[in-house]
Each structure stands twice: as C-alpha cells, then as structure tokens.
Write a structure and sequence with these properties.
The structure holds 3 protein chains of 3 kinds.
Chain A lengths: L1 H19 L3 H53 L2 H8 L3 H18 L1 H4 L30 H37 L1 H15 L3 H12 L6 H23 L3 H25 L2 H30 L2 H9 L3 H9 L4 H24 L11 H7 L12 H29 L1
Helix pairs in contact in A: 1-2, 2-3, 2-4, 4-6, 4-16, 6-7, 6-9, 6-11, 6-13, 6-14, 7-11, 8-11, 9-10, 9-11, 11-14, 14-15, 14-16, 15-16
Chain B lengths: L7 E14 L2 E14 L3 E5 L6 H7 L8 E3 L4 E4 L2 E2 L5 H7 L4 E4 L3 H4 L6 H11 L5 H14 L5 H4 L9 H13 L5 E5 L7 H17 L3 E6 L2 H7 L2 E6 L2 E7 H6 L4 H7 L20 E9 L5 E10 L4 E5 L6 H9 L6 E6 L2 E2 L9 H6 E4 L3 H4 L6 H13 L3 H14 L4 H4 L9 H14 L4 E5 L7 H18 L2 E6 L2 H7 L2 E6 L2 E7 H4 L6 H9 L7 H9 L5 H7 L13
Parallel strand pairs in B: 3-9, 3-10, 7-8, 8-9, 14-19, 14-20, 17-18, 18-19
Antiparallel strand pairs in B: 1-2, 1-4, 1-5, 5-6, 10-11, 12-13, 12-15, 15-16, 20-21
Chain C lengths: L1 H30 L5 H6 L5 H11 L5 H13 L13 H36 L4 H15 L2 H15 L15 H7 L1 H27 L2 H8 L4 H38 L5 H11 L2 H29 L1 H4 L3
Helix pairs in contact in C: 1-13, 5-9, 5-11, 6-9, 7-9, 7-11, 9-11, 10-11, 11-12, 11-13, 12-13
Classes of the chains: A mainly alpha, B alpha/beta, C mainly alpha.
C-alpha cells in the first residue's frame, strides 16, 4: 500500500513540476504514464504497478547510462567528432553503449566467461546459483558463459556475412553506376531475380543443398574461392584498362582468392562458411540496389562529367569522386544490413539450420531451451533478448545517422 | 493605375521571422515594415536569401515548416491582426481574400485533380458560388487570361498543360474568389523569356481589371519595373529602401540599390575573324544528334569558333544549345556530321580522344555546387588536371596551383586547403574556371556560367573570363539565354530554336535589324528596365503576336524582318 | 487507357519471366548438390547397384533439362512429384498446410493493415512531437526483435502465466470459427506486431514525403481545412505509396510466417519447409520455395500494378 501511495505521489509531483516549468513534452509523458498506471492498478493490481515501476526505473537507468556514455565519448573524441556526438539523441548513445558492451564481450569472451563454451558442469536445467549466474542449459552447460561466447560467434558470423555482402554488392553497384549501359542493366536484372525470392526461403533452399551438418569442407572452400574470384573480377573490371593489366590482374585475383579461401576455412568450419556465403549472396543485391541508387545520384553531378572528360579511368572516378560522396549513406546501410543478416542468422540457427552445436549461439540457445517456457521460466528469453537488444542498438545508431544525413540535404 | 493612399489593406510592422537550422533558431527576417494599399502592386526584390518569399508567405499569416514568426511582429490585414488570430480565422481569409500564386505551377497543382476542380474548390467551399457558376466563372477568367481553348482547358489534368499556361491557370485560380490581395511568388522565374512575356501581360491585365492589390516577388528588376507601382528592395532579411517605381528607377538612394540598377557597364571590344585563312579552332559541321534513338535534338547545326574569340549560343530551353556543347565535348556522338579541331576531325566519342585532345577542350558549368566535388580540397580540384595532363608533382604542382589561384584572383594560402562548401557562389565559379585553366586548353565551353549568380558577382566573373581570354588567347563557346551577357562578352552570336541554327553572325550585326523573326521575338521579349516597356511592346506587336503563339508561327527558314527593337 | 494496359501487360510479363527464372534457379540449385539426390537419399554407404537403381527410378539418368521441363510442366498443374523421404505426394503434404498458412497470414493482415496505416498517418501528422518519437523508438524495437522472441514472450504471459490463449496453435477437425480464431490468436498477434511496426514506419515516411509537396502547401494557402488537405489533396496521391507499403509488408509476412509457425507448432507450409530442409526432402523444398516465391512475386506485382492504376499521369495521358 505504501508503495502505491509513494508511486502515485512521485508521479504526480513530477508531472506538476514539469507543468510548472513549461516542459510540455515531459509533462505529457509523465501524466499519460500516471493515467496508464491508474488503469493498470485497477486491472492488474500492485504487481502490475511494480512492473511499471521497474520498467520505468530500467528506462531511467538506461537513459542515465547512455547520457554518461555519450559524455564519455565526447570527452575522448576529437573536436569535430565531439560536435557531431553532442547532437546524438540518447537512443543513439544507448545504441553505441550496447554495441560497445557486446564488442567487449565478444573480443574478450574467454577471459570474461567463467566456464568453457561446451563444458558440462552440472545436470540439465540446473537453477541459477553462485557458480552459474543464469543456471544451466539442457545439457548442463553454464548459460552465462554460453551467452558470452554466443556474442562472439553469432556477431562474428553476421559481421563476416555483412562484409562479404557489402564488398560484392557495393563494388557491383559502384561499377554499374559508373559504367552504365549493358553492365548496369544486367546487374539490375540479376538483383531483381534474387530479390524476388524471400530471403529466409532462399536461405533455406541453399542450406538444404550445401549446408547444415553435412557441409563438406572442400565444397565450402571451392564456393569461397568462387565468390572471391567474382569479387576480384569486379575490381579488375573497374581498375584494369589494358590487356596486359587484365592478365596481371587475373593472376593476382586468383592468388588472392586462393589465400582468402584458405584463411577463411581455417578460421570457420564448413557449415559456418556456407552460412556466411548464403547470407552474402542473399543480401548483396540489396546492397547493390542501394549503392547503385546512391552512386547514381553522384554520377549525374557535373564534377563527374568533368572528370570523365578529363579522361579519368573508372577506378579513379569510383575511388576519388564517387566514394567520398557516398560514405555516409553506405555506412548507415551497413548497419541496416548487419541487422538483417544478424536476424536471418539468428532465425536460421533457431530453426536448427544455422550455426551447428556445440558452438554457442544465441539463436540455437533459444531453441534448445524453449521447453522451459512452458514452466514459466524466462531463461530461454535471455539469448533472444540479447539478439533483440543488439539489433535495436544498431538500429538506433543507424536511425540517428540517417536522420543526420537527410538533415544535411535540406 | 491610381493609388488610393487612404485605404490601407495590409500593414506589416516589425516583422521578424526565424528559421531552424543547426539546432538553433536563426533570424531570417530582421524587422521589416510594409504598407500596402488597396489596388496597389508592390514589388519585392532582392537577391537569393533576401527573404522575399518568406515575407510573402507571412503576409498570409503563414510560416513554412521550420520557420516561425517572432512575437512582437504585427501583420494586419484589413484590420485583422493575423499574428494573434486563430488558425481557423486565418484559414477563412486564405483563398477567399488573400490568394497565392506559386513559382512552379507544375508542382503546385495537384496531379490528381482537373484544373477546374481545383479552381472551383475555394469559391464552393466559401459558398461564394455554386459549382456550375464557379466553372463558368473559371472559363471566363481563362478567356481573360488568353488561355487557348478556354472552354476546354480547365477539364484537363495539370500534366496535360504547358508551363506557361499552367502559370496563367494558377493566376485564374487565385482570382476565383476575387481576393483583395494576391501574392505572386516568382511566377515567371521558371519560364522562358518568350513565354514569360505572355504570363506577365496576362497577370498585369487581370490585376488591373479587378483592381486587386498584389505583392509581386521576383529577383528580376526589369520584370518588377513592368508590374509594380512601388518597389521595396530587400537585402538579407532587411529593407534597403522603398519608393514608387519611377522614382526608384530614376533616382535610387542607397548604394546597394544603385549597384543593382547600374546597367552592365562592362563590354568587351568586339574581335573579328582572322582573314589570313587559318582554319577555325572548332568547326561544327552539319551535326544531327539525338538521345538513344529518341527524336532529333539537333538538326543540321553548323558554326565555327576561331582562336581567341567568344561565340555566344543563344536560345530557350529545348533549343539544343547544351546538346551542341555535349556533341563538341564528345559526350554525345552525333548521328550525322562531325566536329573539326583546327581543320582535323575530332573523334566523335570522348573515350576515343587522346589525352592531348581532351586537354584542348574544357568546360565550365552553370551550377558551381554540382560542378565541384564537395569532398575534395581546392588544391586537389585544381591540381588534378595539372598532374593528370602535365605530370606535375610535389613543389612544381604546388607552384602551379598557386599560380592558377593567383590567376583567378583568390589568395592561394587562404584557399589551398579549403573545401568547396566553405566558399561563396562566385568563389566556387572561379575555382571551376581555374580547374579548366589547369589543363591549359585552347577552348572552353561556358554553360550558363553566370545565370545562377547574383548580378554583381556575375559581372566579376565575366570580367575575369575576358581578361583570361586576352592573356591566354582562349576561345569560348558561351551558352546563355541572357542577352545582356551576350552584349557584354560575345564576338559572334548563334541563335538556336528547336535544334536548328536560325541565325548567326558578328555581335554588332545581330543586335541591329533586320532580324530573323525568331531572333526578333527573342530580342523583343527580354524585359527592359523601362517601366513602359511592356505597354509599348504590346501596342507594337499586339497581344496575339507574343510568346508561344508567336514562336509557333515561325519557320526557321523565314527571311529577315525589320525589327521593332534593337 | 491503352497506355495503362500495355504498362500493366509489360509488368505482368516481367513477373512471369522472373518466376520462370526462379523456377530455373530452384531446380538447378539442387543439381549443384555434391553427388546427386540419389546419393543424398541413400547416404555414403550405398552400394553402386542400389544407387543406379534409384537413379533410374527417379529419372536421374536423363539430362537435367529434360527433367526440368517435366518438373515445370507438372508444377504448373500443381503436381510436385512425391517426397523422397516418405513417398507421399508433395501436393498432399503441403496442400492443406498452404491453406492454413494463408489463413494465418490473412488473419494477421486483417488486423495489421488498417491499424498500422491509421497509426502511420496519425504519427505522420504529429511528426516531431513526443508521441512521434516514442512511437519511433517502440516500432524500431519491434522491428529489431526476432519473431521467436516476441512469440515466446506472448506464450510466457498470455499462455503460461495468464492462461488466456493456448501456447500451441494446433488445429483439429470440427472447430468452430471462434475457436479457430482463439487458437491462432497468439501466432497472428506475433506477426501483427512485427509487420505493424514496419508498415507504420513506411506509411509515416510516405505521408511525410507527400505532405512536403508544393501542391499541399498550395491547398493550405487556398484555405482548405486540414481534413480536406488530407482527404482531397494528399490521399488521392497517397494510394500508390500505401499500396506499395501494404504489398511489401504482406510479402514480409510470408517470411515471418515460417519462424512463427515453428514457435507455435502451427501446421503450416513454413513448418513443412523447415522439416523438409532438415531431412533434405528436395521435392518438398522445391515445391515450398516455388510457392513462397510465387506469392512474393504476385504481391510485388499487385503493388506495381496498383501504383500504375492509381497514377493520374498514366490514367489521363496527354
């Protein structure tokens, strides 16, 4: 009862204060919260109020954390960056904070995690205790440690997939915008076709053929090599201008692709390589479309015409004239694509078709522990919440960047 | 046009308007007073950024998104204080007692409705007329505004009607409730000169007939001289001076106004073709061109440009003057004919030209904003051609860039490391010139280089170009629609219409009759400072012999006629 | 009108061609399988004789293009062959499930489309207010949440804690329509939440874009009241973007449906696809993919055709 009285007293006091100091939006927010709580208190009783209070408290804590983090970044950054950062809304600061935490978690996973990734230390579904912060999973492994390792595995895969999708899509988009004509048309058609298959469905189709537990290391290496050669050819098409440079370039491309395939297969296992390639193929048309549109807006500028008439080669046009004017939207798009890729990989893992056990991964952890839900346990929701949190964080930052770049245009 | 000085319609006092940019409110209008009487037409003029359009909207009690009228301002329309009235009260005035004519009629008519439905919307809403009455009235107004097929044109959709006609239809729409005041916001800026004259004549006529008060916003002095009873000059959100039109034209008080009024004092002496038989530098021979199998844009275009001379190519939008430039630079290979350089054929496509051929022919663009890469330093913008063609590096390159900056009268140490967005319009245009010079060309295409600039800055650019021509023996092809520019800088003139050359010759000949009928129409359509110019012209040519109607009658092969104007 | 018909015809033709290309991709992708289908069915330990027999049985001894044409001509009559795992006809496996999936998607769409468009318009009108910002944050959060996260939260509260709806959306014979609605409420709600956020944001963007056009300012300066500005001046031009938003999101629903069906163990085609993928039952995978892709293309086609039909410039050519 005391809680209820205190709760409403505080809210009313705050709303009156906001009204008195003419803080219109703050007042509206606080007072509507008061009204909503009133309704909730009648329907749900004290527990509902407690829930609202905890949620509000968490929001407040997140807000303060974001504020402090923004100030922290501003203090560290150079003058120009600091000026930009000061315009960032709290949501963006929150996003940066979460990204920072996840990055630290991923990079220093072995140091942070109290137990090994696949180490069985207790019986299945053991409740939380001093040793295991979040209890054990269906095999008796420490949930907390697996979430830390999951940050490393899931994010690394999504990042690699996004980078590959970006290199392929952006290179093709820039080249299509610069070259125009037949090349542009063909690329556009290919992108149209790939994009008319829903991404999850296309991923399932490809995984049913190459992926899963049956993925063969040799297949994955060859596919990687093929992918690298395609990207390399695109680079070559942009940079080479004589027969000789084509020949030398081709040799370099083959060599680099080979090294790249070797390096990649030594870091990731076969099913992971396939997963990365699948998302890269699915999302590169989207990157292509956007890059083509952004670069298309730059290509019609007179300074591009001036450079073409000067006799500059495609590679110079892309590197010095088009790219510097496309970075802002492309960086934002990278964030957006990362979200898509991340959600797709999480979804596939949830379906049991993505990252294979015993590798810790947020999506498959939800699936493995899903049965706990029917006992009213929230444990399986934690990795799912982690996925949502990171995606929201990236989206918040992207939202701010998009807002800023569109604001500059006006 | 007699003024009833007693009857004040609009009284604006201490108007301050702020705009939101960079997270703060900045003053756009810094305390302007304005008094407009019934039936009076006031011209608001000023350069870009003077705040003319913002004041126009404020006269309706309207602040655009991202702007706000500061407390303490007063806008009184016929005794009603607009700054304190409610939205509903202000709305009741708009359309019925104050109407608005926007700059771009094509964008301001709703594409989803017929013209006449948009016309009758206000009178029906205010219950001034029934729909059918309002339609009949619309047709009558269309007739008064001399729109072709007045009975039928209103039943078309906006995209089915041409720009000049749309602008008149919008004036008719503004008239639909017979308002006391109409705001004309640059109504002819987007139109060609020959079309503009029709619209001007129609607007002036109808405002006169109904004795409507008007605020006429424009940056064109000659236009405002035709339309306004009084002129108010604005500069950066502040009033410079106000006076009746005659007085303002004859005897401006402020230095700023005088500088605007000053007739272009600059004229470059006319040069003549060499007589020793040297071939022309650039020779366009019987060129036809079209964009990817579309209709023919250029039809048998031929003219020569000699070393060290300026050829002005004049024509309205769609006449093919920019396309000609694209053919010469090699961006658009012609379907017939060829371009010769010093008597030798120039490869048709720029990719087939050698570095040296590309170097010879440079370009300066109209919009300096899009002509310079905003993310590249000035030193690199200018330095790159020098590096690319002459292979300069290190200190030699830096010396060359400094030399070029000196040449365009910008202090090298100050501009070397800056980026284009930090410069003013005129400075950017100078950088564009320097980039062209860096290639050490013999020929430069100047595409409307001064039309985006304010008048004084434009004159500075013309002087610079003339000086450079004399020092470096450059040939210019000057694409423009502005005949004043032609008068000041050209040696020879080529007049184009619908992709054909209708007349060409030395400048002195071109500005004295006899003219080709199209040249005559073009010359006579350019507004002049004389306030009676429009009246005289209409008397001489007749209302049916101006604008698009007249242009349509002309056959490119017509004989020359004795002109009315020179 | 002739112009419109040609445009629509061209668009339909393009859709057909894309569908054809996709059928090629779907078919020949499986040909890329290391080894072949027979090998995949029998595993590594199969004897050569068994392999050869199965290949003959499946017609694998014929050239790929012949098999593609046979597959395609059967697919057009909705016959996708038989499963290589259970031997049942593919049409039987997925036929009823497809109807179930359509029902779930329609259920979600009926709620999501009107609500999100209305919300989107409201938020667009209140842009830059505190409500707009809160709506922005909330919708971003929903977009960022994986479907299974929302699904399990709903199960945890509505099914386990409060017992209002069943956690498993199983269907049985002889259910009343109301029962059906109640059983499938949670999966539908999950889909609604995700799609609504997307749709609301896109509607908002489309409307704001529209409200910035000069003819809207002109309408305001003609003294039109706000409702009239929206209804008479903005709406007739908003159809194309709104149709586009709806179609795009219905297409998005199709992808979302797969995960939601798995979470709620709903007997839909998505569930069948996931099972088939993990069992490598290629005829079923191919059939499901083709059906999903066809629906997706159809929706995009509908959006484009809708945009063409509502464009005044095309409806009233010069």
């Amino acid at each position: 009862m005391v809680f209820v009285i205190l709760y409403f007293a505080l809210l009313l006091l705050l709303s009156c204060g906001a009204a008195y100091y003419n803080q219109r939006s703050a007042f509206l927010l606080l007072f509507s919260l008061t009204l909503v709580s009133l309704v909730l208190a009648i329907i749900g009783g004290i527990p509902a109020l407690r829930f609202v209070a905890i949620a509000a408290g968490m929001l407040l804590a997140a807000g303060m954390m974001s504020y402090a983090f923004r100030e922290f970044l501003t203090a560290l950054a150079s003058d120009e960056m600091a000026k930009e950062l000061r315009t960032a809304p709290l949501t963006a600061a929150f996003g940066m904070f979460v990204i920072f935490i996840v990055a630290v978690m991923g990079i220093f996973a072995p140091a942070i995690a109290p137990h090994g990734e696949a180490e069985i230390i207790s019986q299945a579904f053991a409740p939380p205790d001093n040793n295991m912060l979040l209890g054990a999973d269906q095999l008796g492994r420490d949930m907390f440690s697996r979430i830390i390792y999951g940050a490393r595995n899931t994010v690394a895969l999504a990042l690699c997939g996004t980078v590959l999708a970006f290199i392929l899509g952006a290179m093709a988009g820039l080249l299509a915008a610069t070259k125009g004509g037949f090349f542009d048309g063909t690329m556009g058609r290919i992108a149209d076709v790939i994009m008319s298959i829903p991404s999850l469905i296309f991923a399932l189709l490809m995984l049913s053929i190459f992926g899963g537990s049956l993925a063969a290391p040799s297949t994955s290496a060859w596919l990687l090599f093929g992918f690298a050669v395609i990207v390399g050819t695109l680079f070559l098409a942009a940079a080479a201008y004589s027969v000789l440079s084509w020949i030398i370039g081709a040799a370099i491309v083959v060599g680099v692709s080979f090294a790249f395939a070797l390096a990649f297969t030594s870091v990731f296992d076969a099913s992971e390589v396939i997963l990365i390639l699948v998302v890269a193929v699915i999302y590169s048309p989207r990157v292509f479309r956007l890059t083509r549109a952004v670069a298309g807006n730059v290509v019609v500028m007179d300074y591009i015409e001036a450079a073409k008439l000067r006799g500059e080669k495609n590679w110079y046009l892309i590197r010095r004239e088009i790219l510097p004017n496309s970075t802002a939207p492309l960086v934002a798009e990278f964030g957006l694509e990362f979200c898509f890729v991340f959600l797709l990989i999480a979804g596939l893992s949830f379906l049991g078709l993505g990252i294979q056990p015993p590798t810790a991964d947020w999506g498959s952890m939800v699936r493995e522990n899903a049965t706990l839900i029917s006992f009213g346990e929230i444990t399986p929701l934690i990795p799912a919440a982690a996925i949502a949190l990171l995606t929201v964080a990236v989206n918040f930052v992207v939202d701010w960047m998009l807002h800023r770049s569109s604001g500059l245009k006006e | 046009m007699s003024l009833k000085k007693t009857d004040v319609l609009l009284k604006i006092r201490d108007l301050k308007i702020q705009g939101y940019s960079d997270e703060t409110w900045v003053d756009i209008i810094k305390g302007v007073d304005l008094t407009l009487h019934r039936g009076e037409v006031m011209g608001l003029i000023g350069e870009s950024g003077a705040g003319k359009s913002t004041i126009g909207a404020a006269a309706m009690g309207y602040a655009r998104d991202g702007t706000r009228i500061v407390e303490g301002s007063s806008i009184e329309f016929d005794g009603i204080e607009l700054t304190t009235s409610t939205e509903g009260e202000k709305r009741a005035l708009r359309g019925s007692r104050i109407a608005y004519v926007a700059q771009s009629a094509a964008a301001s008519f709703n594409p989803a409705h017929k013209l006449i439905d948009q016309h009758t919307e206000a009178p029906v809403q205010y219950r001034i007329k029934k729909r059918l009455e309002a339609q009949e009235d619309a047709i009558e107004l269309y007739e008064r505004l001399r729109l072709p097929n007045p009975g039928e044109i209103g039943f078309r959709y906006p995209h089915q009607v041409s720009g000049g006609q749309l602008q008149r239809a919008m004036t008719a729409m503004a008239m639909s409730c017979r308002p006391d005041l109409i705001i004309f916001d640059e109504p002819t800026t987007a139109l060609d000169v020959t079309t503009q004259i029709e619209v001007l004549a129609a607007i002036r006529d109808i405002v006169d007939q109904f004795n409507t008060a008007a605020i006429y916003i424009t940056h064109d002095l000659a236009v405002v001289a035709q339309m306004a009873d009084t002129i108010k000059v604005l500069l950066k959100g502040e009033e410079v001076e106000e006076a009746p039109t005659d007085q303002m034209l004859e005897n401006p008080q402020e230095d700023y106004t005088k500088s605007l009024w000053a007739v272009r004092s600059f004229t470059s002496p006319q040069k003549h073709r060499p007589t020793d038989g040297t071939p022309p530098l650039i020779s366009v021979k019987n060129v036809d061109a079209s964009y990817s199998n579309g209709p023919k844009i250029l039809d048998d275009v031929s003219f020569d440009i000699y070393e060290g001379m300026t050829v002005a190519v004049v024509g309205e939008s769609g006449s093919g003057k920019s396309t000609t430039a694209r053919v010469i630079t090699g961006l658009l290979p012609p379907s017939e004919g060829e371009v010769l350089f010093k008597g030798e054929p120039f490869p048709a496509y720029y990719k087939d030209r050698s570095k040296d051929q590309l170097r010879q022919c440079q370009m300066i663009y109209q919009m300096a904003d899009t002509a310079l890469n905003p993310k590249v330093q000035i030193s690199e913008i200018i330095g790159r051609p020098a590096q690319f063609y002459s292979g300069l590096k290190g200190t030699a390159l830096k010396t060359r860039v400094d030399e070029l900056l000196d040449l365009i009268e910008l202090e090298p140490s100050k501009y070397y490391n800056r980026y284009p967005p930090e410069l003013s319009g005129g400075q950017k245009q100078r950088i564009g010139i320097a980039r062209a010079l860096a290639a050490e060309p013999s020929f430069i295409v100047c595409d409307e280089v001064t039309s985006a600039l304010d008048q004084l800055v434009a004159e500075g650019i013309l002087r610079l170009l003339d000086r450079l021509q004399n020092e470096l023996n450059l040939a210019y092809m000057f694409i423009t629609h502005d005949l004043a520019t032609v008068r000041s800088i050209a040696d020879e003139v080529v007049v184009m219409q619908n992709g054909q050359v209708v007349e060409q010759g030395p400048k002195d000949d071109m500005f004295t009759p006899p003219h080709h009928p199209y040249t005559d129409l073009l010359l006579s359509s350019v507004p002049e400072m004389d306030p009676n110019w429009l009246t005289t012209l209409l008397e001489e040519r007749g209302v049916d012999n101006i604008g698009d109607a007249a242009a349509a009658k002309i056959d490119p092969d017509d004989d020359k006629v004795e002109g009315t104007q020179a | 009108m002739g112009d419109i018909l040609t445009l629509v015809g061209k668009r339909l033709g393009l859709g057909l061609i894309i569908l054809l290309v996709i059928s090629l991709i779907i078919f020949f992708m499986v040909e890329l399988l290391p080894g072949d289908i027979a090998q995949a069915v029998l595993g590594q330990s199969a004897t050569p004789e068994n392999l050869a027999a199965l290949r003959r049985e499946m017609g694998l001894d014929q050239p790929a293009i012949v098999r593609y044409l046979a597959w395609l001509s059967e697919a057009i009559t909705l016959d996708f062959g038989s499963s290589i795992v259970t031997d049942a006809r593919v049409t039987e496996i997925i036929g009823e499930r497809f109807m179930n999936t359509l029902f779930l998607a329609a259920y979600a769409a009926v709620i999501a489309v009107p609500v999100s468009i209305i919300l989107g318009v409201i938020v667009a009108l209140l842009r830059n207010s505190i409500f707009d910002r809160v709506a922005n944050v909330i919708s971003l959060s929903f977009i960022s949440s994986p479907e299974f996260f929302l699904g399990y939260i709903l199960i945890l509260y509505f099914a386990v804690k409060w017992g209002m709806f069943p956690a498993i959306a199983s269907l049985s014979e002889g259910m009343t329509f109301l029962e059906l609605l109640q059983r499938t409420f949670l999966p539908a709600l999950t889909l609604v939440l995700v799609v609504m956020a997307h749709m609301m944001r896109m509607t908002r963007a489309a409307i704001i874009n529209l409200l910035a056009s000069p003819y809207i300012e002109m309408a305001r300066l003609k003294g039109a009241p706000p409702w009239k500005v929206i209804v008479k001046h903005a709406l007739p031009n908003a159809w194309a973007p709104i149709i586009n938003v709806v179609a795009l999101n219905l297409a998005y629903l199709i992808t979302g449906v797969v995960l939601v069906e798995v979470v709620f163990v709903y007997p839909g085609i998505g569930q069948a696809l996931v099972d088939a993928v993990s069992k490598r039952d290629f005829p079923v995978v191919q059939a499901c993919c083709l059906i999903f892709a066809a629906t997706f293309i159809l929706l995009n086609l509908a959006a484009d055709v809708g945009a063409i039909l509502t464009n005044p410039r095309l409806r009233h050519p010069k």
